[in-house]
């Protein structure tokens, strides 16, 4: 029997991106379902509607660190080396390369995808978010629903905002707020990605917030079953549109908005789960 689920390629730099994409994509879809498809079963109905995949068979995530190198190694059917343009959308390729190259790899994959979601960290580069927008704007709209996002300053800042809003982390959040002299849950844009020794570093803030559950949330072994990737810390979190809209400084609001506008309709327009 043919698998009719929406094939969703997900890609990024690390397990934080993997976790965020899965949670935010499903959160956006469930938000849409609650207002348009009251008959969908919860919480596992989405497993019958979409499947997350990587570039290779039997994987559920693609590490973008070697995307450009893999594109350079590609060859057109004639056997000649493949050369991609040094410009994209009227501007130098530069930071847009990771997005356009990842899209190209998925377009050429033996197992095609219906949608592709890619995340990268801003890493103090103010032009990276614009590059993601540029790459998304020139992506072929009728082939793959391509959604690119940039975590500011890094993915862990998004996780602090999402996980820290939960009641279970309120005591640790209060302590962290006292240490930093601001609330990183409502102001994650004030966290930093560099240097790693900085008191305001997002990874340090997340590690303090999660305490003993840090490894459980972020350090999944390669053979972790896909259904186990959404960690308990995020399972209790809510896809709160109002909260997400207030976090525009990190890029989280923009990314969530695109998921709601472009990705969620692609999932809910397919066959409804039994």
Quick overview of this protein structure:
The protein has 274 residues and is α/β, with parallel strands linked by helices.
Can you walk through the features of this model?
This protein is globular. The chain has helices at residues 15-36, 67-72, 97-107, 128-138, 155-163, 170-180, 202-210, 214-218, 232-235, 241-245, 252-268; strands spanning 6-12, 50-53, 62-63, 87-88, 91-92, 115-121, 145-151. With 274 residues, it is an alpha/beta fold. The model is unreliable at 221-229 (pLDDT under 50). The relative contact order is 0.17. The two termini are 15 Å apart. Strand 6, helix 4 and strand 7 form a beta-alpha-beta unit. Helix 1 (15-36) crosses helix 11 (252-268) and helix 5 packs parallel to helix 7 (202-210). Strands 1, 2, 3, 6 and 7 form a five-stranded parallel β-sheet that branches. The chain has a two-stranded antiparallel sheet with strand order 4-5. The chain has eleven helices and seven strands. The protein is 40% helix and 11% strand.
Number of strands: 7
Extract low-pLDDT stretches: 221-229
H and E order: EHEEHEEHEHEHHHHHHH
Largest sheet: 5 strands, parallel
| Spatial shape | globular
- Rounded to the nearest angstrom, the radius of gyration is 19 Å
DSSP strand content:
5-15%
Helix run count: 11
Q: Which percent bin holds the helix content?
A: 40-55%
How far apart are the termini?
15 Å
Q: What structural category arises from helix and sheet content?
A: alpha/beta
């Amino acid at each position: 029997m043919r698998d009719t689920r929406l094939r969703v390629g997900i890609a990024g730099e690390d397990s934080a991106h993997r976790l965020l994409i899965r949670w935010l994509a499903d959160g956006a879809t469930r938000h849409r379902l609650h207002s348009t498809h009251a008959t969908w079963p919860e919480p596992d109905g989405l497993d019958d509607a979409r499947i997350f995949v990587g570039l290779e068979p039997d994987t559920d995530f693609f590490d973008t660190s070697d995307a450009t190198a893999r594109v350079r190694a590609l060859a057109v059917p004639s056997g000649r080396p493949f050369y991609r343009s040094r410009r994209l959308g009227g501007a130098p390729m530069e930071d847009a390369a990771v997005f356009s190259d990842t899209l190209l790899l998925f377009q050429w994959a033996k197992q095609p995808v219906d949608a592709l979601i890619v995340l990268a960290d801003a890493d103090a580069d103010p032009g990276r978010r614009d590059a993601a927008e540029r790459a998304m704007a020139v992506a072929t709209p009728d082939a793959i629903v391509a959604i690119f996002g940039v975590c500011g300053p890094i993915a862990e800042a998004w996780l602090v905002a999402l996980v820290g809003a939960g009641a279970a982390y309120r005591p640790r959040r209060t302590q962290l707020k006292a240490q930093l002299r601001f609330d990183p849950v409502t102001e994650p844009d004030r966290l930093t990605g560099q240097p790693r020794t900085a008191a305001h570093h997002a990874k340090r803030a997340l590690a303090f917030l999660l305490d003993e559950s840090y490894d459980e949330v972020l350090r999944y072994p390669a053979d972790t079953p896909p259904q186990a990737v959404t960690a308990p810390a995020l399972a209790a979190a809510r896809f709160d549109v109002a909260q997400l809209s207030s976090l525009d400084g990190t890029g989280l609001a923009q990314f969530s908005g695109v998921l709601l506008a472009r990705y969620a309709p692609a999932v809910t327009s397919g066959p409804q789960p039994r």
